[in-house]
Amino acid sequence: MPDLLIELFSEEIPARMQAGAREALRQRVTDGLVEAGLTYGHARAWSTPRRLVLAIEGLSARSPDLKEERKGPRVDAPEKALEGFLRSTGLTKDQLEARDDKKGQVWIAVIDKPGRDAAEIVAEVLEGVIRSFPWPKSMRWGAGSLRWVRPLQSILCLLTTEAGAEVVPLDIDGIRAGDTTRGHRFMAPEPFRVTGFEDYAVRLKRARVMLDQDERAEQIWHDATNAAFAQGLEVVEDKGLLTEVAGLVEWPVVLMGAIGEAFLDLPPEVLQTSMKEHQKFFSVKDPKTGRIVRFVTVANRETADNGETILKGNGKVLSARLSDAAFFWGNDLAVAKAGMEDWRDALTHVTFQSALGSQADRIARIAALAREIAPMVGADPDLAEQAAKVAKLDLASQMVYEFPELQGLMGRYYAAAAGLPAEVAEACALHYKPLGPSDEVPTAPVSVAVALADKLDTLTGFWAIDETPTGSKDPFALRRAALGVIRLVLVNGLRVALNTSVTAIFQARMIMEATDQERPEFQSALFAALLNKNKGDFLGLAQAKSADLLSFFHDRLKVHLRAEGIRHDVIDACLAMPCNDDLTLLVNRAQSLNAVLTTEDGENLVQGFKRANNILTQAEEKDRVEYSFGADRKFADDPAEAALFDALDAAEAAIGPAMEAEDFAKAMAAMAALRAPIDAFFEAVQVNSDNEIIRRNRLNLLHRIRATCGSVADLTRIDG
Amino acid sequence: MSDGKPRSFQEIILRLQTYWASKGCAILQPYDMEVGAGTFHPATTLRSLGTRPWAAAYVQPSRRPTDGRYGENPNRMQHYYQYQVLIKPSPPDLQELYLGSLAAIGIDFDYHDIRFVEDDWESPTLGAWGLGWEVWCDGMEVSQFTYFQQVGGHDCHPVSGELTYGLERLAMYVLGIDHVMDMPFNDPDAPIALKYGDVFRQTEEEYSRWNFDVADTDKLLQFFEAAEAECARILDQPAEDPRSGKRIVMVHPAYDQCIKASHFFNLLDARGVISVTERQAYIGRVRALAKRCADAFVETKAGGWTGNAPEAAN
């Protein structure tokens, strides 16, 4: 069986696109080959800045011969119909077979589809893949119309068997597939021929190209950490940067250089960000001091002077960059020490969102809200308000203008420089968190208060102006903000009636904006339209918005809990219970229910409950009454029935106090204990007895099951 | 090609001129108007449009009023030089040709690390974009390398390859100079040796002051609007010239007005009188002019018009 080797050689492919391109090449080519009737053993793809490579082992040499049968007109159909059929199949009448069909005899054409050589199929598939390749951005070049990520220069496409190698005949807009490639752009630029993958890999390495991106990344990391270790230092890990850098070189050479004395006092985040963003350098830190003291750059070649010139040049560029950073840092510190007044002024002129006012307006709202939230999270209201007022001021600083990703982190330094309390400085850095499902959640009370206030202000604001996420569109990251609120509440075990709080926030917004005489456009943008419709029903409007936002929280919570292994039906069963806007309570309940449902008793209890509930519901519909009168023990004429009375008494006695104490595990355990008596009851008795008194009593008993279980969770929503 | 390392700023320019001349480019002179970048020269903006082949290289003095630093910053100025190469259709060996130009100015690949790092180019004022790279030499960006995909809203067919060298920065690197004003402009052994600062320090100071504090913003605004109106008026003229009876579409005079409008906008920007929201609107107005000029250019012979265009119906 032949092996296939494909190399698409181009001008430099952006590093960030290489992983996707490798996978697309592998997937699309193998899919195409399989669809055309070939099979293969194994396929692997690699990339360098200048090439995408696919090697397929054990490809079938030919696709199988096939016979295709096509049904034609009935034998007695008019001549015209037969003529048409012959034309479409390319056969003559004597080549057709007449076969019996349901409606009589019909003509059948048996068309031989001979198999095709792999080379022919590969050429066809590869051309199709190249012409429709899913690059995030592609281009044309020269006078041609072919599109590729950058000009495609050559194609190597070889089928190799023990007998030798065969070039797949393929010509795409003048690029003819061959068996040659080139090595490193500078160290081994001459073209060379290859006979198959093994030969290719060996010759390529000799020509100073390390084909495997993972091998390049490993080598970079290995050499960098070794170089650092030799000086008692550590490389700051950065997987994204490592992948990117491995995608920028074919022959990685790690070089470590010093950072000028003058810059060592810059915050480590600044050094790290500047070096990474502008130069794609790794940071090297002194573990004893935590400071960044060296950089690692990865060159694409070996040089006669062992990289000395390259390192000198890189150091020079870095100095220029860090001079800028040091300049910003100095200017910013001066503003911070003077009380940050310049930034406060500047933010009155920066629009947050046109209908939601300036950043200064936003900060004022967050500060008021943080003050309200503070007591709920155990924070000092004055500190929370103060923190909220400074937490976003760094948005006006020069450093954050240059490096937006340093927002908050710079705020912490500037708050400290301004002599503000440590809690306030900390809140500057932490109030944006958590930024995603796995990001750290703040627990310091002041930070929690500001983080919640920030996110709730954003959510209620965009809800107020009807800019809510739709489908994949969430330009203001509102899903992330909602998840942030959820995780802040859960991780800190906060007890908040979210619906009440959010309604209050909506009302506060409305009152604030309705009374803001200087900003008529601001009011109208927000609520005027809605207010007209609602004839000034402030509370009703706030409640409607709040209910909508709460269901958004619930949707995000479901996604969050599903990721934590809690079934969606379990969540639904708990969402149907009262106080479902108290997320901590809700999640406790869901976790307990989830746990109990994994036990045999729990699982079977649901069956018993549903059986009881179904019988009861049917009877209620039929009789048009509610059997909630209370069952009387004296009509229990079966021991199993009497036992159920006992069990329900015991369960109710246990569940009531447990629920009171919010001990869901205990309540659920008591509920699960009903499983055996319920099962035994259904085993032993017929609910719909001929005796109407007994029947009614049993229905009333079923109602107790429903009520008892229903006080814990809505089991009707559990699947199965 | 001259051997060894170049010794002055001008030698680097001369070597680039000689190199690209040897590769068949027409060596043009700078455009005689204030522009923000070499791309604005009609030899690039307009000639990248249409089907006719083109190959040109030139130095273009470029002005970016907001970058003025009174001649004090080591590498930031409101006036600097770009070296620009435009070849249409882009030749298959453009990367090699480009690397040859680096070798010509004394960059030895045995000692330096040259990299092509993704950088997509876009000019919102010209309604143009392309894909390519910034070229790094030892971590320093020394050129922009772009395959034009669209200019003035027109798809480029064929595609032009554009190379832009920031001459001062490149020369400082090659010559090992830390502050641009210290860079030898002519040969350091010349009887009257001049440094870059001898030529430009004073003008940097003068223009920085004028750009930032003195330029009359009301006048600039009037000039902007006048240029905008004149550009439109020129393009509104019928194609047939009543005097000569010839078909003369006046693209270049109109495009001059577009360049002027763009520069007046840059000056207004430097004076800090354009707000963030207004900025987009001004850029859009210049782009509208550039687009009209592009539309007109493809209706001229240089733009590939053959006389059979539907316009003949006029």
What does this entry show, briefly?
The complex is a heterodimer of chains A (720) and B (314). Chain A has 26 helices and 18 strands.
List key phrases describing it:
heterodimer; A: 720 residues; alpha+beta; 5 domains; five-stranded antiparallel beta sheet; four-stranded antiparallel beta sheet; 18 strands; flat; B: 314 residues; BirA Bifunctional Protein, domain 2; Methane Monooxygenase Hydroxylase, Chain G, domain 1; 2 domains; nine-stranded mixed beta sheet; 8 helices; 9 strands; globular; Glycine--tRNA ligase beta subunit (chain A)
Give an overview in words.
The complex is a heterodimer of chains A (720) and B (314). In chain A, α20 packs across α21 and α22 (600-623) packs across α25 (675-684). Chain A has a five-stranded antiparallel sheet with strand order 2-3-1-7-8, covered by helices on one side. In chain A, strands 13-15-16-14 form a four-stranded antiparallel sheet, with helices on both faces. In chain A, strands 4-6-5 form a three-stranded antiparallel sheet, covered by helices on one side. Chain A is flat, with a radius of gyration of 36 Å. Residues 521-526 of chain A have low confidence and may be disordered. Chain A starts with a strand and ends in a 10-residue tail after the last helix. The longest helix of chain A has 30 residues, at 308-337. By secondary structure, chain A is of the alpha+beta class. Helices cover 53% and strands 13% of the residues of chain A. Chain A has five domains: 3-62 and 117-206, no CATH class; 66-113, no CATH class; 213-336, no CATH class; 342-564, Hypothetical protein af1432 (Orthogonal Bundle), CATH 1.10.3210; 588-717, Isoleucyl-tRNA Synthetase, Domain 1. Chain B is globular and about 60 Å long. Residues 309-314 of chain B have low confidence and may be disordered. Chain B has 314 residues and is an alpha+beta fold. In chain B, β7 and β8 (154-155) form a beta hairpin. Helices cover 38% and strands 19% of the residues of chain B. In chain B, strands 1, 2, 3, 4, 5, 6, 7, 8 and 9 form a nine-stranded mixed sheet that branches. Classes of the chains: A alpha+beta (720), B alpha+beta (314).
